[in-house]
């Protein structure tokens, strides 16, 4: 395989000389010699002030680019056509111009219209966007990105189609993403800081990023990001990732409207992930691969007035995952998807009148049970499934006609509710 040495075209790598033009000249020379030629960048610190563009293969993992510009430090590929089946082992890329805060526009590595390529990212640090993948009126697709370290970039990874382009079916392997409060002006719970951002198309009819996978990536943060992941795409998967944050900042993920099919598949602290849903999502669209449940027993006394339909609020502290509960109303609000719900309601002994229980879910009554009074305990059982959109609730209401107030039994299993998420 033909190789071009960047130093043969004037690159110095002493951290003082501006090597922007020399690196671009060397990259252009490699591309002109042979489409499969490789540009070799020897170990060293290469000061740059403008964009270095690689359309040829690159072997630069031993080197460091110290960027002193205000735009994009490294560009892979071209907005004017597809670059396919190449290996880009890019240098470490550090924004040497950043002293505090972020500048709102700089990009460490921007990859455009790559197809079936391999990208090695050893380190990208201190940019507004660390790694930006874009299909510009074309596709960024079927690529493998070996993630090393994305360190203190405002947005560590951003996937965004441009114009009529698309970003799909890419695999991000391993690596570590990290923010730190107080480092160079980083503040806690910054709404514009993200570890992974699946952004909708900036313009044109392109669909959002889809069918991209992050595998075994450490999505760490000590409290800078309000949301670790902001996903407006669909069918994107986060598998066996590490969701590590301090206790005071539980990991949050924002599923934008239309992000159907997104999936969190286990990983360290994945059970702590709080999902937030924007607007009205497609019903049952998000599967997190973890599951959800709610389970509660009636350990608080509740007296039911005669003839009046009354919500059961006597549940003790529910044990829940992917479900919220309002003790004032007795309403459970589960994450989107289909849930199977069962409930057991037991009244104390009273032979007068009748007992009625209703299970309501997602705005509808899905089961009703009725029984006569008796000298012994009277139990009603309810069950049914419903599809929820993220804002809907389920609850149990009861009614009795004994002629006076009548108490519910307070112990399990006589009063109990259980709900389980059914992955689709």
Written account of the structure:
The chain is mostly beta strands and 424 residues long. It is 3% helix and 46% strand. The chain contains one helix and 42 strands. The strands form eight sheets. It has a 16-stranded parallel β-sheet that branches. The longest helix has 14 residues. The mean pLDDT is 93.
SSE layout:
Blueprint: E1 3-5, E2 14-18, H1 20-33, E3 38-40, E4 44-48, E5 52-54, E6 57-59, E7 63-67, E8 72-77, E9 83-84, E10 87-89, E11 92-95, E12 107-112, E13 114-115, E14 118-125, E15 129-134, E16 139-141, E17 144-151, E18 155-159, E19 166-168, E20 171-173, E21 176-178, E22 194-198, E23 213-215, E24 218-219, E25 229-231, E26 237-239, E27 252-255, E28 263-265, E29 274-277, E30 293-297, E31 303-304, E32 310-311, E33 319-321, E34 323-326, E35 331-334, E36 337-347, E37 350-361, E38 364-374, E39 378-388, E40 394-400, E41 406-407, E42 416-422
Parallel strand pairs: 1-3, 2-4, 3-6, 4-7, 5-8, 6-10, 7-11, 8-12, 9-13, 10-14, 11-14, 12-15, 14-17, 15-18, 16-19, 17-20, 17-21, 18-22, 20-23, 21-24, 22-25, 23-26, 25-27, 26-28, 27-29
Antiparallel strand pairs: 30-33, 30-42, 31-41, 32-40, 34-35, 36-39, 36-42, 37-38, 37-40
Instruction: Give the number of helices.
Output: 1
Terminal CA distance reads: 49 Å
How does the major sheet shape up? Answer: 16 strands, parallel
Number of extended strands: 42
Low-pLDDT windows of residues: none
Rg is 28 Å
Q: What percentage of residues falls in helices of 4 or more residues? A: under 10%
Mean pLDDT: 93
- Report the oligomer: single chain
**What would you call the shape?**
elongated
Strand content: over 45%
Structural class: mainly beta
